[in-house]
Specification:
- By secondary structure, the chain is an alpha+beta fold.
- The chain is 19% helix and 49% strand.
- It has a five-stranded antiparallel β-sheet with strand order 1-2-3-4-5, covered by helices on one side.
Length: 78
């Protein structure tokens, strides 16, 4: 699995996002960082119907940034 880099512009703020896919059990998870942040793990959540950050530092991600990253990750897997 390869590393993906993409740009997001959210509320006028640019974000450089790095996402690295990896296999976990039967699914795919992503190690994600943005603007040189720490890494966050995103996994698919069937209850929400999108990728979400699942680690203990998740509250550090603004919700609009997490949602935009989730949308992009879903596009990458489609």
């Amino acid at each position: 699995m390869q590393n993906q880099t993409f740009q997001l512009l959210i509320d006028g703020v640019p974000y450089q996002v790095n996402a690295e896919a990896f296999k976990f059990n039967e699914g795919v998870r992503y190690k994600v960082s943005y603007n040189q942040s720490d890494d966050f793990i995103f996994a698919w959540d069937d209850n929400v119907g999108q990728y979400i950050s699942i680690d203990s530092d998740s509250p550090k991600i603004p919700s609009n940034v997490e949602t935009a990253i989730a949308v992009q990750l879903e596009r990458m897997t489609a």
